[in-house]
Structures are given as C-alpha cells and as structure tokens.
Prior knowledge:
By secondary structure, the chain is of the alpha/beta class. The chain has helices spanning 16-25, 70-81, 103-106, 108-118, 138-155, 221-226, 242-249, and strands at 2-8, 29-37, 56-60, 63-66, 89-96, 123-128, 162-167, 177-180, 188-197, 203-211, 229-235.
Amino acid sequence: MLNRILLTNDDGFDAPGIHVLEQIARQIAKEIWIVAPALDRSGVANAISVREPLRMVQKEQTKFAVYGTPADCVALALGHVMRDTLPDLILSGVNQGSNIGVEVILSGTVGAATTGMLSGIPSIALSQCFTDGNDIPWQTALTHGPLLISTLLNKGWPNDVCLNINFPDVTADNVKGVKVTRQGLAPFDRFLITETADPRGENYYWLRTVNSETAQPEGSDSQAIKHGFISITPINVERTAHNIHIDLKKDQ
C-alpha cells in the first residue's frame, strides 16, 4: 500500500468523478490528499497561471480547492501544500467523459497528469466514458480502478511517461478486458460557437468541440473503448511528426 496519493481533476472540487477517485485511492494508499480546481476547468490542457495570482481554500485537513487550472493544482500541491511529504502517485479524474484522440491534447485531466510527470511523480489520468449524462457508469471505474492501478504500479513505467486510462461506457461486469493502446486518430471536426446576449445586451460566446466519425485504426484508444475494453495509453511530451521531420531534412 502506498503512503500517500494526490488527487486532482478538471471537472471541479465537487464533481462526482473525484469522489469516485477518492474511493479508488483509499483502497491503495494510507493518506489521500486532494488539491483540485474550485470550478470546472475542462479543456485547459496544461495551462498554468503565470500572469495572475492563485487563491486556495482549505476545505479539510488534506483537501484544498484552488481557483486555477488542474496544472496549477499539481504545481501548488508539489511546491507548497505537500512539499515536505510528496505523494507517491498522482491520480487525475475520474473525468466525466472520455479523453481519447484529440481530446488528449485539450484535456485538463490529462494536463494535470502530464504536469505530475514533468515533476517526476508517477501520474495517471482516468476518464469514464458515457453516452447518457443521466446514467454515467461510475461503478465501472470504481470496480476496476483499484486493481488496475495496483497492477500498473507493480509493473512500473518510465519517469518521462504518464498513463491515460479510459473506462468504457458499459457496466462493470460487461468490461471485456484491458488493452494497452495508442492515441487514436483525432475525432475532432470543428469548434461550435454559440453567441448569446447578456442582460446588458452585450454578446458572449460558448465554445464546444464537434467530433467526427473518423474510423479508428487497430490498437487505438477509441477502438478499444468502442468494443468495451479499458484503454491504457502511455503518453509523453514528444510531439515530433517523425515522418515529416525526415522528409523536411532531405531539403537541407
């Protein structure tokens, strides 16, 4: 059993997913610390607040809400809140919705795990896929999460890698298994902008992404999820398009 785990997310301090994550963490660690965004900060990726101050509210002895991004939360936890007793593991999630394909680039859940990785702490992002917002199968993550995380910790992974786990939109007893996957083709199609007027007559805008129905290749995260498997994708910061890199160097 681990000594201590740091939990965070991007859905906010009071989101249901982080309560699920706390139940998972209590099965594999003695101490649970939560440093999570006070508000929903989905879609902010690895953003950190370098030009504005952060405010943090202590909710309980080891629970803190931060008016900042998920990456801010990890930075504050490691550099301030837990600086004398660093966590053995960082868990980010459980996100309400998938983080596959292009979602990985935008995800604050994955961004928090990546920030932990950059700080030298083993880090895992966890997401629960769903199609019906009124019937999210949280029990799937809760049932399979503890053993899966323990198994991964026993196996280990390099310091320059974090793990991105997605649980499929099926009940816990209908999970077909676990697959180690790669990030799939981007399902992203476009940004949808909704314009609305406030009571003063001034416009503001809601942004959301629209996903396409791109076919997913064998071994991808989205393919595994589609067929009822838990997906584990190892992620690092390397984004070089190596085939294009080689092609461009030919002209030098």
